[in-house]
Amino acid sequence: MKFNLPLKLVLVIIIISACNSQSKDKLKQTNDKLNTFIKPIISNSENTISFSIATNILDTIVIRVKKEHLKSNDGYVPNDSVFKCPEVFLGNKLIFTDEEWKSFEFKINSVKALKVKSTIYILLKIVDVLYGDRCFVIEISDNYFNTHDVISKYFKNLDQDEFLELGGFYAVQGYRDGSDSGYYNPAYIFELNTRFLRDSTTSKRMTLEKFEKFHGYQTLDKAVPLSKKYLNSEK
Questions:
Q1: Percentages helix, strand, coil for the chain, rounded to the nearest 5?
Q2: Distance CA 72, CA 203 (A)
Q3: Local confidence pLDDT in tens for the 235 residues of the chain
Q4: Of 87, 99, 151, 152, which has the fewest beta carbons less than 10 angstroms from its beta carbon?
């Protein structure tokens, strides 16, 4: 059966469809602007190697590494080389120096810069063979500075909103011998918003995808039942 719609109604439907399409395009453009990656530029001097990140909202950010702190593979790190003790400058001002001798992977793709509105995130890969690689996040805005050391299993949009998430499950030396239980290690997921925030909703959801019940955000030194979904995924 065919229905002949009035011309005015047809025009209204077409206009509404066009508006919806434009709204989706506009949302996509907004999302692209919210998460803009900036490619660092490497420069090499006599004593240092620098990663320069030019932004249009802050002074240029420079990560400077003394060549004496650039180490070759020492047998413990499965990469060509690592660097230690980076110095971070905002313009000519030193804003951070790592004094804990963490091993950062020395590769251009391991140094990322992300602009989220008025906030710049610098992400450095920490090489940790024992407990898994992590991400060292340097958070900079015009009136705020902070650093974060988090697991880096996931770095993507995990909840389909307009911001990227970073995090994962910390490795535990625990009970899992083919049974239906394992030591409890909840997901730690953070959102790279205009502030670096724990994404409690996504953390809990991903924890419940692995374990039968949610036991909070602290690891437990006892085995708890794993979820059926997780057990089926390992078959």
A1: 20, 40, 40
A2: 36
A3: 444 545 444 444 334 444 454 444 443 443 446 789 999 999 988 889 899 999 888 999 999 999 888 876 554 444 457 888 999 999 999 999 998 888 898 877 889 999 999 999 999 999 887 777 899 999 999 889 999 999 999 999 999 888 999 999 987 766 665 688 888 999 999 999 999 999 999 999 999 999 999 999 998 888 899 999 888 887 6
A4: 99
CA atoms of 195 and 156, how far apart (whole Å): 16
pTM above 0.70, yes or no: yes
Torsion of CA 9, 11, 15, 21, to 10 degrees: 90
Residue whose structure tokens are 């394992």:
182
Q: Give strand pairing partners of 129.
A: none
Side-chain-side CA neighbours of 219 within 13 Å: the count stands at 12
